[in-house]
Write a structure and sequence with these properties.
The structure is a homodimer of 283-residue chains. Chain A has 283 residues and is of the alpha/beta class. Chain A folds into two domains: 172 residues, 3-Layer(aba) Sandwich (Rossmann fold); 91 residues, 2-Layer Sandwich (Pantoate--beta-alanine Ligase, Chain: A,domain 2), CATH 3.30.1300.10. Helix content of chain A is 37%, strand content 21%. In chain A, strand 9 and strand 10 form a beta hairpin. In chain A, helix 9 runs antiparallel to helix 10. Chain A is globular, with a radius of gyration of 19 Å.
């Protein structure tokens, strides 16, 4: 497994692979790898000749009052996991390599980046789109892999790939959950024992929403939200940030669930902000 | 010479060339080709295995009160010129191919796109950057060619290529001028006989600026500007939009010309807005 720290070397490796006719899959991560990330790496290994995993905690996607400094970092453990899966290249540049002095260009996503998590995190998705576009340009991967846990992120990435004609296939992999249903997230490491138990409320609320739509055939999004909110309120450690039922393609809010919808939520458990989502189809 | 109208076919042609190990040069244009454009095509032919010329009048870079509808279009003449130079591919997509319904992502250039021409043309350079990024992603050219006549544009393109890590070498070619000094531009076609004569004032003002800095060793930018403005005022058909003396790398205004500077101006001749520039170095 090759560890690459500069853009120049990453470009050279990538050009070499392309010259050899090797198809590349890219898995962009911020490290602190869990089984969710590893499922992306496994999928990339299956579908490509070479798998490149990037580890970069991207300062441009954190707001000034957010957890950039405390975001979990564990490079040794990450490299061991990736080596175990036989990733071919780990690209882990320094921040000053990615954002040299004078950097100022941004990919501006407009409205789709300002709803859901974008409402609580202004600029976040422009930062995500910009760093992912940079990675696409450095690696030029045939395929790239993202987890559905960050659902809005996957919609944003598919949108700018389409709008700006990036030549990569964006592959979204299912959420990987702990046995009790909590979606895997590097930020779960912030939770103490009590909070960890409380955090299951996100998945429980989504399950309730799904049940209301599927089994009880309620199509009124506001009714579904209301019952979900009532459930979350029963958990004293939980503080709701948002819960929205949206069109999975463009994130527009839906009033009635006619065919398919994404239920997305963000909940603060103590000081830790967690997100989760589920795609429901009316059968 | 192959004429390509869809993004899908352009990608296929480009992949084929890459697969064959052919190096591609891209010359993005808005058509109405003059000797300035043709000098870019010749340079691309010299430096690459395959030369792709795009012709696309980009609606996203025109303001609502600008000349998108009347911008000169002459496809037959363009194709004849390009065929004469043995360009390999002409990529000429329709607007709805480039901007399908729902398109909304923009490359946001920030301050560098808001000075000089950007002050009179809000959003113009975000539109330029966005369409050029799309062309880069569709063609993936090793080299791309732009004329120095649109000086700010060349700085903007070099900036987003660097900031977003596009893997193309941006090559800026010298301004091609008419015998009397007027910089070649598709918009010169708008000028009537009288205006055509008056239009030489742009180049005359730049020559004066260069002479003041070079021969008369004046380094005070405001003095240089003042004398240039006085000269332009003597031409009754000319109305100055702006004249600025800037750092050629970042377009910051310079107060004193210590080493190098770009003198950039825009002048309305009748209803036609023309631009020109010169890079001066103190010797």
């Amino acid at each position: 497994m090759r560890i690459v720290k500069t853009i120049k070397e990453m470009r050279e490796v990538s050009r070499w692979y392309r010259g050899e006719g090797k198809v590349m899959g890219l898995v962009p991560t911020m490290g602190a790898l869990h089984d969710g990330h590893l499922s992306l790496v496994r999928r990339a290994k299956e579908q490509n000749d070479r798998t490149i995993v990037s580890i970069f905690v991207n300062p441009e996607q954190f707001g000034p009052s957010e957890d950039f400094n405390t975001y979990p970092r564990d490079t040794d453990a990450d490299l061991e996991k990736l080596s175990g899966l036989q990733a071919d290249v780990v690209f882990m540049p320094e921040a000053r390599e990615v954002y040299p002095e004078g950097f100022s260009t941004l990919i501006e996503m407009g409205g789709i980046g300002q709803v859901l998590c974008g409402a609580s995190r202004p600029g976040h998705f422009n930062g995500v789109a910009t760093v992912v576009a940079k990675l696409f340009n450095i690696v030029i991967p045939r395929r790239s892999y993202f987890g559905q846990k960050d659902f809005q992120q996957t919609v944003i990435i598919q949108k700018f790939v389409r709008d700006l004609n990036f030549d990569t296939e964006v592959i979204v992999c299912p959420i990987v959950r702990e046995p009790d249903g909590l979606a895997m997230s590097s930020r779960n490491a912030y939770l103490n024992e009590e909070e960890r138990k409380a955090a299951v409320i996100l998945h429980k609320a989504l399950q309730l929403g799904e049940e209301l739509i599927h089994s009880r055939r309620i199509d009124d999004a506001s009714k579904v939200k209301k019952e979900m909110i009532a459930l979350i309120k029963k958990e004293p450690l939980a503080k709701l940030d948002y819960i929205d039922i949206v069109d999975p393609h463009n994130l527009d809010p839906v009033k009635r669930v006619i065919f398919a919808a994404a239920i997305c939520l963000a909940v603060n458990i103590g000081k830790t902000r967690l997100i989760d989502n589920i795609i429901v189809e009316r059968r």
